[in-house]
Structures are given as C-alpha cells and as structure tokens.
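Same chain as my last thread, 174 residues:
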Amino acid sequence: MTEKFLKSMLLAALTLVVCACSDEDSVKKLITFHTGSERDNAMASNRTLEVMPISTVSVMTDTNHFMYNGDLQKVHVAEVTLPDGKPLRGFYFICNSRGAKRLFQATASNMGGYVVVKYDGNVIGLRRIDMAMNDGKIFVTPEIPLKADLQALVDEMNKAIDTINEIKEEANAW
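reply #2:
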C-alpha cells in the first residue's frame, strides 16, 4: 500500500511540475467525461444543470467525472451517417483498458442518460446512452459551433492525452 501511495504522490508531483513548466495551455487542460440525465434531482448536491451550447438540451450533470485524459489513448474526428442520410462529424474517443472499464460501468448503469464531455471545464460534446459501451470507443456529438475547427481541437486534446500518459509512464517506472 505504501508503494502505491508513493507512486500516486509522485504522479501528482510530476503533473504539477509539467503543467507549471509548460508553455502549452493544452497540457494543463483536462478532458473529462460526466454522466447526466434529464431528470432534476434537487437532493443531489453533486449535480449541476448544464445547458448544451448548441442543442440547448438541459442535462443534470454529475460534477464528478468518471473518466479523464489518463483513461484515453486517442481522439479522432469521425463522421457518421444519420438515418436521414445526412453526415454528422464528431469526436471519436478511444479508451485505454482502464478507460474501457470505466466507460462500460458508467454507460451500463446510466442507460437512457447522457455522457457529457468537457474540455478545460467547458462542454464540448454530448452522447445519449443507448447501450452499454463495452469496446472502449465512443462517438460524441460536438456541442461547439459548427464553424469551429474540430481537427485543431482534436490535435490539442491528443497533446493533452499524450502528456498525461507520459507522466503516468514515468511514475510507473519509479
């Protein structure tokens, strides 16, 4: 238990050092995944109302995330075809093994709810949970202006993912 604690402390210290020394803001930014629902639960103190910036859907979102950068391998810009034949571009997140487990647990226990994705604390995507996602991959509809450069944002997020994964590898080497 002491070794695990020391590794965790080292990881935290390395994260602070890298973030403090970096000139790139993307290193400091977190990608976080939250569960949410349309139902208002006034008794839940760990939930906040988020109004999606593009779709204007109101979602009661858990303030605690279930996944973050360190649970991801990569993110891509992807395109799916809607039933009406129109294409829809969005984010395609690929999880590592830990992230795949967390994604499965969150989606299996929140069927009918939402996955809300934030980057640097701002909502960037929304996904209705219509199935338990057990392959560690999730397509998310963007909640950013249509004229936004999705590829530039994805490139920035991949830098943040790579940085966290490098920090984790260094901590595990100790």
